[in-house]
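Weekly structure sync - notes
Attendees: PM, LS, DV (DV joined late)
Agenda: review two folding runs queued last week.

Item 1: First target. Sequence and structure tokens pasted below for the record.
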Amino acid sequence: MSSSFLLVEFGRTPTNFRRALGPAFVNAIYATKQLDWSAMVGQLASRRAAYAWLAAATIITCLGCAATPPQDLLSQQPPAEKSGHTAMAATNTPSEVSRAAHWQDTNLPQFLPPPKLAEPEVLEFPAAEQFETLDDLEAFAVGNNPTLRRMQQEAAAAWAKTGYVNQLPDPSVGTMFFAPPMHFEPDRQWAEMEFMQMIPWLGRLKAEGRQAQMEAMAAENDYRAERLRVVGDIRMNWYKLYVLGKQIEITEVDKAQLQSLITTANARIATGDAQPGDVLMATLELSNLQEQMLGYRQQVIATTAELNRLLGRDARVPIMPPAAIYATLPAWNHDLLRQIALESQPELIAAHLRAAATRWGVEVARLERRPDLTFGARWMIMDAPGAMMEDAGRDTWVLGVTTTLPIWDRKYDAMLSEASREHFAAHASVDEVAVRLDALLRDLWEQALASHQTVLLYEQSILPQARQTFEADQQSLINNTVTFDRVIRDYRTLLTLELGYHRALGQLATTLARIRQTAGVDLAP
């Protein structure tokens, strides 16, 4: 066997494996050119030596195949990104391209396929339907809100982590060849194979698995809490859009009413029953209404854009304001809401799960003091050419066990202290969330009671009286028994009260939506 034969066989190995071996292997082969290979072939002609060479060749081939990426992946070219990049690439000279290819071949890891470059994703925003209900918007947001999609994937990733965190590490296999062989009279060793498996402390693996499960459940409840928040924000902006729609509608009606009053004032001026200042006063009030309309329309655009952001679509998609909302005070109380929140609020459940995860973290830190064991088996390939002893050249097996020595107490005390502090902090977070939910529910419930009483007061007393007053003074103006400025003042009062009624109704609906979000359950009225 000659060195040229080895080089030919080496050349048949996969390209990336030859690069992984590097020039050191080639130099070693050339350094052995002066050896008497024909004599060695005669000495290695035994069956044991042939099997050993076959095993070594098999391992080299397997390692080379594992290190070589699939040829179809290597043959794929990354797509052109932009025309500017393409033009720049076209200006490179062949020598520059060759140097760049040589640098990539010699400096980058060759056991990975080249990265696939993709064109930037173009987001296509779906157009909104002409009449979308609140339920339609909520269902659309659950599937398209970017924050919800991100947190859903994060929760799925946390669950995927539970599939490997408590598993054993991968074993290791090693092979060594000796050229020239190591001599032990009358034997000599020319190769060895080694298998090793590290076994961590099994109790620590179990604790790490339980900790990962608690963290995955906490991430899932974080997603549920965020979904409640998104739905609550959609409802809040939906009711705000209703209030703005009513404000625009009432203002348009009042502008028409004011135009009628201006017409009446002009007729009275012609007959000498009114002064020109009355018309100027009405014109000024009409200009104030137009100014308010500008503000209302700007708020409608801003609220629509916020709703579309929550829905995960283009801010320019129009959303029709609701024509009516129904908000009635349910038969709830603070104690009932507090009990429901303590049992069902995902944010509080996530805090409890994180506290449980940190408890398993304390167990993991405590078990860090336990040693890790490593079991190994080594096959020493021997031969004894020309030996007269019967058992000369017999292969040898070496079995071994190694262990870590956790002797640095200060390090492990610090790890346990860190885990314990994190556990206490997690328990404090649970109390923090519970107290905040309790206070928030108390505040929201009182707001709901006040809004409900305000709505009843508007419906039963304030608005009917204001309408009667305005209608009576308008009739008196025709009979010339009241002044024009009094009618304008009544009109302003009625406008303010009507807007206040719709704001109170929208505030009641918004508060009830926030109560449902805080309780963690979409409670029935």
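Item 2: Second target, run right after the first with the same settings.
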Amino acid sequence: MKIVKHGLITLALAAVTPALASVDAATSAQQYGSYVILGQTPAGENVAIARTVIQSNLTCPTVSAINNGSGNSTTPQNMITRDNPTQFPVMVCEALIGFDTAYQLNFADKAIALAVAKSNPQNIQVFGDTGCKTEDCALGDPAEPFKSLADSGAEAKPDLVLHMGDYNYRGTGGQIALTMKNAKGELAQTPQWTYDAGDSLTASDHCGQQAGGPFYSQSAVNANRPDSWQYWLNDLFMSSGELMAAAPRIVSRGNHELCSRAGPGYFYFLDPNSNLVKGQQQMSCPAVQVNKGAMANSVQVPNYIVQFKQLNVAVIDSANACDAFTGTAFDKVYKNVFADLNAKVKPLKQPTWVITHRPIWGVEALDGDKSTPCSPNSPYSCINQMMQKAIAAQPGKALNKGIKLVLTGHMHKFESVSFKQGSHPPNIIVGSSGVELAGNAPSPTANVTIENLAASVLTTNTQVTKNGETFDAYGYFQMKLGTNGSWQGQLVNPANKLTLATCSSKRNLAQGVCELAPGIGVVAD
């Protein structure tokens, strides 16, 4: 066993000899995507994991560091395959790599360069809700406009990509058909909504699904649409290959990646937990227990923090946090999530950003008994009720003061929520990077009261105008780090040569941390 030290973590890797490579070694044409995922070890060290998805029944490529002085690579190291409990028809190979070092994957025909994991990223891109619904994209096609946005993002040469979750829409339509006996005792297909932790319908139908169930899942043996590789290929890998090659990513799990939906693929392809990391194991979804509640059929990814030289990025799993309701078994889960987050952030010196899928503070139009008003008689509803109440249960009823920004997705639009007193960090919602956009929000600005605190809201809604033309308000958020934790950001759509909104950590803009870019108007619903 050869021990190699790179960056912030010690790697134990077995050396292999290129001349002994198997005849069935994967070629570059037999890989569907190669990328770098960042995470944290149980001991608190940063970890970078190189992954590649290849056709089944082949030998993984090797990985080697590139000697930038000579242009030559170091001795190749083996990759291992991730456990594949759902039997996807592809293999995921992975290996630990170091920070601030260039690496390549050595396929049978050629080497492919990996994105460099930088310990001090300056140019950061944020994407969220990137897949494409079945009615908008044909099976076999990449997800648009996500692919165009991702390709433009890659051209801008980011140092780091943050993804807010909801990668797979074509495979997670929400309603499935379950084969079961009808009133006559005959087998028939019955339509049923899957568990989705609080999106749409009512608490009992879609959020609660408590013990006594049944629990409805795409992974049930009698379901007609289990999580499928084809949808992951179309919505993610075909659509963001250039971006994957350009920068490492830190990922958040969306509600479309719940274990009742596309969770199996999320844990196989994207989750940073790995058998390669000491004290850690690859995570996976449990086998469906139809007659038990959501808790028995769910997984909660532990909080983790990637610590860079000028910034910490903390990731919490909000996939199971019910948007508009409380009073389920997950209330306690999220109280513990935020207690752990505050404890982890407390000793850190650099500012911390929290990324998660569901907004902690998001504002949209009130929708009867399906939502909770921001304040009495308010025309707006506020999500996420479960996380807000979990934070209110913490000492001080707040996040740790070291948390300076919350980045989320989930609401299919761009929105910023800034608290005027600064008691809560701003929440910037980037849910406009591909999936069909949703309105139903203040347009374009509003002043609201959230948890008895004054807040300013800005949204780009579904469409914007500039110079008399109307454009769909798709985009990704590009950020530039400054000194002492400061940052500047822009919501951009390079294909349309648009900057839709500008943001700053200085909180002195028209609507808190964000304002519409010059010349931009917002089309009201």
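Discussion on item 2: The CA atoms of residues 310 and 457 lie 28 Å apart.
Action: LS to circulate a short write-up before next sync.
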